[in-house]
Prior knowledge:
4-stranded antiparallel sheet; Beta-Lactamase; single chain; 2 domains; 9 helices; Alpha-Beta Plaits; alpha+beta; 311 residues
Amino acid sequence: MAAYRSNIDDALADGRSYRLRVPEAATSPALSVDATAVKLSLMHLAQRYLDPNSLLNAVFDALTAYLPLIGFAWVQEHTQIQTPSFVPSFAPESSTHQSLTLRDEEQIVGQLSIQSERPLSDTELRWLEKMMQSVALALRNTVIFQNALQAAQMDPLTGLENRRAFDVQIAREQAQFVRYGLNSSLVVMDLNGFKAINDTWGHDVGDRLLAHFAAGLRSIIRETDHVYRFGGDEFCVLLPGTGHYGAKKMTARLDAWLASHELVLQSGERLTVRTSYGCAVPEKESDCRDWFRRADQDLYQNKRALRSCAA
């Protein structure tokens, strides 16, 4: 008996040898909270958002009160969204990654990747699955809505944004100029002789030429610039924080790119794309429609001058 008591005393003296272990899940707030109340709260939260990123962030923030979470990533078909804190490639060694597949009856709605401070227990994962199931359809629907919205603002031939997106952005740039004095430039352009190219080589070559021109535009603009296919062979570029001088530099870069990147046809013939430009900056006493009208007028004045020189 003395030897047994001595062994216990030795173990207690060495804190590393004897420790009362309480399961981590037993101390989780998720297991003591009213699950129905949390689900209802999340469902009400989901009704506020049409943007999937905002919805995922809001759900994540709400659930961090109950579980030791670091970040979420939501994967739905070819779309992935994630909270800012979800960085798996640079995650600390102490973090853990787990996943849940969420379903609506037999249909897979999406895949949730979970980054947490420790492995979640089976009980915690089941609780989290129930909570996420209450907002899974809302997440799926917001992703579908945003994809449809992006498709409605995208030109399928060139991959550039279209006039619908242009109308939204130019109004935003005009409002920022009026309120904060943040200057921007609008450059309007079209392709010289595009109708003759369509008539000579056909519309398939014309389409290739438009896509080729769009690729050149994307390659020479800054990350903060916005480029659009306005319609037909007309394109627009909005240059935030840029005046006339910066706009002229942009057109010079595009001219240089076009001169060094001819479009090669299957016959071996080469087409050099040339374009005319019009430029304008916003004015406080006018609106975005007048801003576009002035840039458009500048474009056609330049085209008339080009025809005069050719004649």
